[in-house]
Here is the input.
Amino acid sequence: MDSREIEEKVLVALEEIRPFLASDGGDISLVAIENDKLVKVQLHGACVSCSVNQMTLKSGVEMTIKRHVPQIEQVISVDPS
Here is the structure.
């Protein structure tokens, strides 16, 4: 799987999880994919200040992305710059 395919599959995974985040007033966007193994995302809206956003990131977002792209090793959230 090349980098373009990885990005496409990660975006599909984010689209799959977006309705769940939106139902709580949040959203997510892809920031970068490094070395085809590390995905950086940015949480928006209610997700930024949510007390369980790290749990959502690991159990929801990371799990969904890894289901679509098994070679992804980690998903991290970055703060807006």
